[in-house]
Amino acid sequence: MVKLYSRTVNAQQPLSEVLERYFPWCGGELEGIRQIFESYARRKARQQVLDYDDLLLFWSALCATPGTGRAVADRFDHILVDEYQDTNAVQAEILRGMRQTRDNITVVGDDAQSIYSFRAATVRNILDFPQHFPERRW
Q1: CA angle 121, 110, 20 (to 5 degrees)
Q2: Could you tell me the pLDDT band of residue 138, with boundaries at 50, 70 and 90?
Q3: How far is CA 32 from the centre of its chain?
């Protein structure tokens, strides 16, 4: 269940799509799984705790917040990301948000090697780097 939840959150895809593509044997349990996810979110809120997926979502939201996001981005002169092929959609959003005001970003990675698919890592992030950061040298 944790893998399913994490993939849904990090891929930023609807639960139904994630079930269909990655967990087809659970397809008939969509509503039950949705209820479990909602219960999990309520429980975390009641206990005032965050899991790793939440930390990424909160950081992404912070970067996207007008004013605050720019202030956070301005605190970092340079960003270096190792193993960029092992980042997911949320992590790519965070990087774009953190480069609102500066061009200094370097990513390295190997598009033939990826081990974090369980967290929805996508090699597209490194392959699409020139489109996401067109003003950077490639």
Answers
A1: 25
A2: low
A3: 25
What single-letter DSSP state applies at residue 106? Answer: E
Strand partners, 20: none
What is the band of 68 on the pLDDT scale with cuts at 50, 70, 90? very high
Asked if residue 79 lies in contact with residue 92, where contact means CB atoms within 8 angstroms, the answer is no
How large is the C-alpha radius of gyration of the chain? 17
CA distance 57 to 10: 8
Where do the DSSP E strands lie in 1-138? Answer: 79-81, 105-107
Q: Alpha helices, DSSP H only, in the chain?
A: 2-11, 15-22, 30-47, 52-64, 68-74, 89-98, 124-127, 129-132
Cα dihedral: 85, 88, 92, 94 (round 10)? -130
pTM of the model: 0.83
DSSP β-bridge partners for residue 75:
none
Rounded-to-integer distance, Cα 48 and Cα 51, Å: 10
